[in-house]
């Protein structure tokens, strides 16, 4: 079975500082993808970044980077130079080869950026 | 290019009433999904359609039915709504079922069952 764990229900960060949102996962699939989504207060789910299990390099997309540690089964999201607009819920999700049609989501982390 | 659209945006039902949530995508994606989001529980998969003509149950299918009308449209039906179905419903699509395929979400439907 797949499982995604986000242990930080809420986080605060000062504007312009970096913040790391934690995500650990459990899977028996040989290949899998890890995703991060942002959900602002308006409610939509916005795709941020993807990391494949065989990717050698950590994924980066602008101010977002994914700190992927395969042996520790962690896929932490790092947001650099936080902005007020980064205040939102952030969800980690996983999809595997044997369960490709099922996206498994964590319970989310609420990030608040303080001016 | 609207991406994934959902109607309605908000709905109030009485217990026992039925309704259909509509979803359409214009990205020529093969796979479509319905999720519900409840406080503190993340998103949970209700049903999915890997390709046109197929549908399968997800994690929480009880009380729901789906129809993949064509490649673009995937509807979710509540035959007899219950207060436990009060939730936010998201439709999503991806180009295929591969593990590397990103899912793109619609804006959501907020459903309140009284």
Shape of chain A: globular
Rg over C-alpha atoms of chain B, rounded to the nearest angstrom: 13 Å
* Derived structural class of chain A: mainly beta
Biggest sheet layout of chain B: 7 strands, mixed
Shape of chain B: globular
Number of helices of chain B: 0
Give the % helix of chain B. Answer: under 10%
Could you please describe the fold and organization of this structure?
The complex is a heterodimer of chains A (115) and B (114). By secondary structure, chain A is mainly β. In chain A, 0% of the residues lie in helices and 52% in strands. Chain A has strands at 3-5, 10-14, 19-21, 24-26, 32-39, 46-52, 60-61, 64-69, 74-79, 88-96, 104-105, 109-114. In chain A, the strands form three sheets. In chain A, strands 2, 5, 6, 10, 11 and 12 form a six-stranded mixed β-sheet that branches. Chain A is globular, with a radius of gyration of 14 Å. Chain A starts with a strand and ends with a strand. Chain B has 114 residues and is mostly beta strands. Chain B has strands at residues 4-7, 10-13, 19-25, 31-37, 43-49, 56-57, 64-68, 74-78, 87-94, 104-105, 109-113. In chain B, the strands form two sheets. In chain B, strands 2, 4, 5, 6, 9, 10 and 11 form a seven-stranded mixed β-sheet that branches. The radius of gyration of chain B is 13 Å and the shape is globular. The relative contact order of chain B is 0.34. Classes of the chains: A mainly beta (115), B mainly beta (114). The A-B interface holds A 4, 29, 31-33, 35, 37, 43-47, 50, 52, 91, 93, 95-97, 100-103, 105-108 and B 31, 33, 35, 40-45, 48, 50, 56, 58-59, 88, 90, 92, 97-108, 110.
């Amino acid at each position: 079975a797949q499982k995604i764990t986000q242990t930080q229900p809420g986080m605060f960060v000062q504007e312009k500082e970096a913040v790391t949102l934690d995500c650990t996962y459990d899977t028996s699939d040989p290949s899998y993808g890890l995703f991060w989504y942002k959900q602002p207060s308006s409610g939509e789910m916005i795709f941020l970044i993807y990391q494949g299990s065989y990717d050698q390099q950590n994924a980066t997309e602008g101010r977002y980077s994914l700190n992927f540690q395969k042996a520790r089964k962690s896929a932490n999201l790092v947001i650099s130079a936080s902005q007020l607009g980064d205040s939102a819920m952030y969800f980690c999700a996983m999809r595997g080869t044997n369960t490709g049609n099922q996206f498994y989501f964590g319970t989310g982390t609420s990030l608040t950026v303080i001016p | 290019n609207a991406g994934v659209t959902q109607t309605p945006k908000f709905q109030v039902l009485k217990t026992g009433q039925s309704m259909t949530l509509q979803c359409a995508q214009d990205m020529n994606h093969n796979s479509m999904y319905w999720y519900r989001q409840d406080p503190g529980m993340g998103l949970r998969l209700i049903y999915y359609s890997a390709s046109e003509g197929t549908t399968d149950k997800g994690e929480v299918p009880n009380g729901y039915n789906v129809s993949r009308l064509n490649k673009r449209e995937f509807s979710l039906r509540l035959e007899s709504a219950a207060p436990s179905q009060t939730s936010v419903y998201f439709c999503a699509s991806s180009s295929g079922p591969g593990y590397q395929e990103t899912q793109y979400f619609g804006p959501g439907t907020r459903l309140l069952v009284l």
